[in-house]
Prior knowledge:
Layout: H1 11-29, E1 34-35, H2 37-44, H3 48-56, E2 68-69, H4 70-80, E3 87-92, H5 96-103, E4 112-119, E5 129-130, E6 133-137, H6 141-148, E7 152-155, H7 159-171, E8 176-179, E9 192-195, H8 198-211
Parallel strand pairs: 3-4, 3-7, 4-6, 7-8, 8-9
Antiparallel strand pairs: 1-2, 5-6
Helix pairs in contact: 1-4, 2-3
Amino acid sequence: xxxxxxxxxxxxxxxxxxxxxxxxxxxxxxxxxxxxxxxxxxxxxxxxxxxxxxxxxxxxxxxxxxxxxxxxxxxxxxxxxxxxxxxxxxxxxxxxxxxxxxxxxxxxxxxxxxxxxxxxxxxxxxxxxxxxxxxxxxxxxxxxxxxxxxxxxxxxxxxxxxxxxxxxxxxxxxxxxxxxxxxxxxxxxxxxxxxxxxxxxxxxxxxxxxxx
Length: 212
């Protein structure tokens, strides 16, 4: 199977990669060996042309009239998404959102795991353990990550602290940040940031509800 072509993958396509992986895992668990673009599209809620266009960025993943080999595509997307190895993640901020993420069992769904969490040095949670995950003071980020060597972090701190904490994460060797803080971060180009704005997503949902 050909690997990713030397071309830029559209952001919309990149955001669907984990959906494709999830669908192929579900098909495989259901003992489905082959799947058409129509079946994949219906499982995700998009059209078949979009599936074929997305897959075209990665070379020949299937054959016309034959469909897609479920096991091969599941393995292919696992490799692309680095789900063949454990990914250590650190969590910054253990407020309501942070606590919910601490209790979310990532490892039961994929090979990501939160290995440590951080809060303000004077926060009462510092020095405790939640879901077997130790909570440290933010000033210890660099020291603790020198041991854990995580490159990914989830940021759930208040907006007025997000940039300051993100700068600390970069110094600690973090290369990817999933930010729940509704503020754009100014970081080096080699650091990837993905924003999750629940308020915005809900407002968009309400807009389409009213429009419909």
